[in-house]
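Title: Prediction job returns without error message
Component: structure pipeline
Severity: low
Priority: P3
Assignee: unassigned

Description:
Job completed but the reporter wants confirmation the result is attached to the right record. Sequence as submitted:
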Amino acid sequence: MARTAAFFDLDKTIIAKSSTLAFSKPFQAGGLISRRAVLRSAYAQFVYLVGGADHDQMEKMRQFMSQLCTGWDVATVREIVADTLYNVVEPLVYDEAVSLIEEHRLAGRDVIIVSASGTEVVEPIAAMLGADRVIATRMEIVDGRYSGEIEYYAYAEEKARAIREVAEQVGYDLADSYAYSDSVTDVPMLEAVGHSYAVNPDRELRKAAAAHDWPVLVFTKPVALRSRVPLPPAGPTLAALAVGGVVAVGGVLWANARRRRLGA
């Protein structure tokens, strides 16, 4: 019997806001950004939440984050994310998403987080949720700092391509696999599997969901993960792999062409 998987977008699907922008205040406390940048991040978060994530909005978000993190020390970013992860992210996780993840795990499916956010943020969140794999954006690193360039952008059609490639590598039956997202930019990802769901969809995704006959789910209840039953074990989790240096699936795919690795 072929293996199957459940692919989850992260921002506004599993958690209630942008995962990267959620760390604005800890990054300020760690000396990475100014108070003005925090205010700009808050505004970007507001626009993202209210306006949805169409192509233009995602492009603006990409440019904003690239400019914001230029010159940041990578080790400092990872340390801040590790130290503040539970305080920042845990209250933002949707209860309904946690339940879905549990159901898929109990059904024997791998859980894969697919996000345009950076791997340094996505991997720890995925480990906290008990995910098996990650497809995420990678920033270019030069001498231990972000250069401001993006090496691998897990966005739109690239998400679908990455899903198909990892399915071929691992042996997933995509026709019997699942996908969840809030954004019209993820239509290619949703079209790549046999069971697709629009979660808190933006206006355009709602239209696409109606055209494709995809069910619409509404997640409204953020929950503290510690109040939930622990997720069942899934072999070598991301948390365990992180000890030796986990690399996002997106990074692995890009490394096939560029041979660049992002260490933990």
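Comment from assignee: result matches the submitted record. The longest helix spans residues 35-51.
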